[in-house]
User: Which sequence fits this backbone?
């Protein structure tokens, strides 16, 4: 890890030490740690101009979350902010809770790979078009969702995504999105607070028990799920909320795609193609690239899918923190290594490398990816 | 009195003997169990009043501050069992400061003198200290039953005292308390010759107990019917316990997590096979798929399955439900999803109660769990459903209307749409029609919790239709004072009203002047009530205790949290500094609250005759409503 910090510093990705802190190990590099703490203090304004720009733009993107919270979605694209948020969260909840928290921990360290990819390429492909942000809020995307309570401030914070920093931006999101405020009956109180005490009404005993159980549920970083489920978050650019899916419930990529289509089909934005018959596999394609055979139920690519106009790429973040296109590896290997899923616009997937079977473990390769002129892999997940 | 003139005459002529000897009357009345019935009986005539009070063995006190232990002891001289409730329910959700009160100790001191043969004590939301537990253990030689639910202030040391000294203990039930779990050594404090235990519930605790001591305890307590273990008990331990206690009727497993060898698995399977009488199964912490089938043999006669700490998926739930044809009550986590609830609908035709808890309630970004579809599916399959507690992230008016159409017998309808103020997600309209349908269709409704985007219309419906409603919880709802007024004017049986984060102000608060004495309590927090409104209420209704708690940094005039309850003993004297007790009586001149100053007829407990004739003063009070916001020269102090 010691070779990493330099690169990480550039993008402000000192999360790796943070990640290690989170998983209970000590950071091998004090430099990284100090960078981390610096970033924490700067609260997102460290270094890179990209980051600042990213931060601002990010704030306009409508997300479901508390005022002051930062959706984990944003992290990859705003690394410094992500770090600071992340770090800040570590900072505040470190004493009690860094070992708590379910999926969020899984999400943590991965950002750097993603960001590396971003920064190497266009540098601006973070922001899905803001059409998405206009999605009807009444579909349940209330920003002022209630939070934990005074009795368990640490725990309840951690019970949310660890990456959230309640002091952070979406207050400005709130400002920019008046409709959000309007949508919420209770706009006055939550606008000021980031947590609503005692809501939802769940007794402390249950809250505490759930919080610690959730952690255990997803702490296993081997991918071996002792508890019988393997929840990963699925986000879609432009959708106002995330879903969680249990990868164990699917047997192959096809089933996963079907499920995701059901969950997110209503959110396709931009140009839409005619809806496929229900449960048809027609919406799942993979373009072969450089002759790599399609695997596990994915069929050969069709250029006509591109012409449907609605191109979404299903990507996932693996154990190493790299963002990969879904479909490259055998299903079992995928479920073992997948930590979260993201459905992104095809245009933003430029530079995202497919994962070859013989993936080189050398992390520097990530940067090498941008140097190559990859064709875009398209997995068209939704075409309705 | 009743229509019978003879009875009426007897009431006024206390020298005339009753038609029955007292002993017979007492014997007959002792068969009455319901405290409501008993209260009614006590109003018939003086003789019946006396007979009833001498024969009452169990007293239920819904609000520990409504009465004093001295009054209770004087009223009911031969009580063996007491149920006592303390803090307002919202203290469960951290809305009440920790040192608020509801200390059980003063009660224990009086009981030690007046009820030395007390056998049972059930406490809910009381502050209990280790000293109190020790006092209890030492001073009541016949003590048998201790139940602590949602209490706080004690540690496992207190439990050790109970275990050590209560030689006749039959029930120890520790549930969902704020307990300082120092060590599991308390369990080893039961003496080796102690065999009377019938109920042991320590699921609340996490620290390891000495398993050998537990095993010996379970073996020698042949009457043990209920055993609910904590997470620290492993599957291997469980197997050994089950072998000792195949007669169990209720079982709470420990953690289902640790790995078992094949041999251990087989042994455990055998052990569960022996549990033929099991009607309740709970615990199942960290239940994982491979071990669920172990439970199947024990499920045949299950009526209550509590999976609310088990992260199950839909197919796992389904497999389990197939084994439970007689299920009446089911508690699950929303990890089972709508699909899991479909399985409930398909497999549980006798289901009466369903509670669906959120596994991850504070993760608003992620939408998962259950939706309206799940509850809808249950309602189609489980027509006998009458109790539902449902945490969800989306709901529609149409779904709720269909649900109550399918299940019109709801007595408890608690719907929590977790995002405050969220409308019907399909139509974007408020959820008024949903709750309108509930109160119109479910005529037996006793308890209602509302959520989602709600206007005053919801409360108009509630006031108009909810004639049997006793408990109502309202959060983030309503548009104006009218909402609360509808509730107060409309629901004749309303006893407990709790409101938070609603736009109800003084006019609303004061519209209930006539109502509050017939209710147990009113809670209002984060509404628009001011100190002046509260003072006016306190002045107009001297037999109500009006308590105000203020949040840090709030405006002086705002009454952030208001708790109003009827009481025969006046404002309480143990309120901490953060609780302002408003009283019409000046602090200095206030009588000391001794019961002898009170009108004896007020001793009827817990029933209350219709609101007394203080109309004159009250109407005078109403005229000053118009001057609500004019600062009056109040003399009284607030403590």
Assistant:
């Amino acid at each position: 890890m010691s070779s990493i910090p330099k690169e990480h510093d550039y993008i402000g990705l000192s999360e790796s030490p943070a990640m290690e802190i989170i998983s209970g190990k000590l950071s091998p590099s004090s430099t990284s740690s100090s960078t981390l703490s610096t970033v924490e203090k700067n609260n997102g304004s460290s270094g890179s101009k990209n980051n600042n720009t990213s931060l601002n733009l990010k704030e306009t993107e409508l997300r479901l979350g508390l005022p002051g919270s930062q959706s984990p979605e944003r992290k990859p694209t705003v690394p410094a902010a992500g770090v600071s948020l992340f770090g800040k969260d570590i900072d505040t909840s470190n004493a009690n809770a860094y070992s708590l928290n379910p999926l969020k921990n899984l999400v943590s360290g991965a950002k750097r790979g993603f960001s590396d990819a971003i920064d190497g390429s266009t540098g601006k492909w973070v922001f899905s078009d803001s059409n998405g942000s206009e999605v009807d809020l009444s579909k349940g995307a209330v920003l002022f969702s209630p939070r934990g309570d005074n009795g368990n401030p640490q725990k309840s914070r951690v019970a949310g995504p660890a990456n959230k920093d309640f002091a952070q931006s979406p207050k400005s999101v709130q400002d920019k999105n008046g409709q959000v405020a309007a949508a919420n009956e209770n706009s006055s109180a939550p606008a000021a607070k980031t947590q609503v005490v005692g809501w939802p009404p769940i007794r402390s005993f249950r809250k505490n028990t759930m919080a610690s159980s959730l952690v255990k549920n997803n702490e296993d970083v081997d991918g071996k799920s002792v508890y019988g489920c393997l929840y990963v978050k699925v986000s879609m650019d432009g959708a106002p909320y995330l879903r969680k899916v249990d990868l164990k419930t699917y047997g192959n990529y096809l089933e996963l795609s079907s499920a995701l289509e059901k969950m997110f089909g209503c959110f396709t934005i931009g140009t839409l193609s005619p809806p496929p018959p229900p449960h048809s596999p027609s919406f799942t394609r993979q373009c072969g690239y450089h002759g790599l055979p399609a695997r596990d139920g994915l069929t050969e690519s069709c250029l006509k899918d591109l012409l449907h106009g609605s191109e979404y790429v299903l990507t996932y973040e693996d154990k190493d923190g790299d963002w990969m296109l879904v479909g490259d590896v055998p299903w079992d290997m995928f479920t073992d290594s997948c930590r979260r899923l993201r459905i992104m616009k095809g245009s933003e997937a430029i530079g995202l490398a497919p994962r070859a079977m013989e993936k080189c473990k050398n992390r520097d390769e990530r940067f090498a990816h941008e140097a190559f002129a990859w064709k875009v892999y398209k997995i068209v997940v939704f075409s309705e | 009195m009743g229509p019978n003139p003879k009875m009426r005459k007897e009431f006024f002529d206390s020298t005339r003997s009753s038609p029955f000897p007292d002993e017979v009357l007492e014997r007959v009345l002792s068969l009455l169990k319901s405290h409501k019935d008993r209260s009614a009986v006590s109003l018939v005539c003086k003789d019946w009043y006396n007979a009833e009070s001498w024969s009452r063995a169990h007293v239920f006190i819904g609000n520990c501050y409504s009465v004093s232990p001295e009054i209770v002891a004087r009223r009911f001289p031969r009580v063996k069992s007491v149920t006592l409730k303390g803090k307002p329910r919202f203290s469960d959700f951290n809305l009440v400061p920790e040192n608020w009160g509801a200390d059980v100790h003063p009660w224990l001191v009086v009981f030690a003198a007046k009820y030395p043969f007390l056998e049972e004590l059930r406490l809910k939301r009381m502050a209990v200290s280790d000293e109190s537990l020790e006092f209890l253990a030492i001073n009541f030689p016949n003590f048998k039953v201790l139940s602590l639910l949602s209490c706080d202030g004690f540690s496992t040391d207190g439990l050790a005292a109970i275990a050590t000294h209560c030689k006749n203990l039959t029930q120890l039930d520790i549930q969902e308390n704020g307990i300082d779990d120092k060590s599991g050594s308390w369990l080893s404090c039961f003496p080796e010759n102690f065999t009377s235990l019938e109920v042991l519930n320590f699921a609340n605790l996490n620290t390891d107990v000495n398993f050998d001591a537990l095993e010996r305890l379970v073996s020698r307590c042949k009457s043990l019917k209920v055993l609910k273990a904590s997470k620290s008990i492993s599957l291997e331990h469980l197997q050994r316990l089950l072998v000792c206690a195949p007669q169990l009727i209720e079982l709470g497993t420990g953690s289902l997590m640790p790995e078992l060898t094949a041999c251990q698995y087989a042994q455990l399977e055998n052990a569960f096979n022996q549990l033929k009488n099991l009607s309740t199964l709970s615990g199942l912490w960290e239940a994982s798929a491979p071990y669920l089938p172990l439970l199947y043999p024990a499920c045949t006669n299950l009526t209550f399955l509590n999976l609310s700490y088990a992260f199950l998926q839909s197919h796992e739930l389904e497999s389990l439900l197939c084994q439970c044809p007689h299920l009446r009550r089911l508690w699950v986590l929303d990890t089972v999803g709508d699909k899991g609830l479909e399985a409930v609908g398909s497999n549980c035709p006798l289901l009466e109660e369903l509670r669906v808890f959120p596994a991850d309630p504070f993760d608003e970004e992620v939408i998962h769990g259950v939706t309206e579809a799940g509850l809808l599916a249950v309602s189609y399959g489980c027509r006998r459903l009458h109790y539902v507690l449902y945490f969800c992230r989306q709901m529609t008016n149409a779904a709720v209307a269909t649900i109550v159409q399918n299940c019109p017998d709801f007595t408890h309808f608690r719907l929590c749409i977790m995002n405050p103020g969220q409308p019907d997600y399909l139509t974007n309209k408020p959820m008024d029609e949903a709750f309108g349908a509930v109160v119109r269709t479910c005529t037996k409704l006793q308890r209602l919790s509302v959520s989602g985007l709600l206007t005053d219309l919801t409360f108009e419906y509630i006031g108009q239709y909810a004639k049997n409603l006793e408990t109502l919880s309202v959060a983030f709802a309503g548009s104006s004072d009218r909402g609360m007024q509808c509730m107060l004017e409309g629901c004749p049986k309303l006893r407990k009203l709790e409101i938070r984060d609603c736009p109800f102000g003084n006019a609303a608060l004061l519209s209930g002047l006539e109502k509050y004495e017939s209710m147990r309590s009113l809670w209002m927090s984060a509404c628009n009530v001011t100190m002046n409104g509260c003072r006016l209420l306190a002045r107009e209704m001297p037999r109500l205790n009006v308590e105000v708690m203020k949040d840090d940094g709030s405006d002086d005039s705002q009454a952030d949290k208001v708790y109003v309850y009827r009481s025969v003993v006046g404002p309480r004297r143990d309120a901490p500094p953060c609780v302002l007790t408003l009283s019409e009586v000046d602090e200095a001149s206030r009588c000391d609250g001794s019961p002898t100053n009170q009108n004896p007829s007020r001793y009827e407990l817990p029933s209350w005759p219709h609101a007394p004739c203080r109309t004159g003063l009250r109407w005078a009070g109403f005229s000053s409503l118009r001057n609500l916001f004019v600062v009056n020269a109040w003399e009284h102090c607030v403590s």
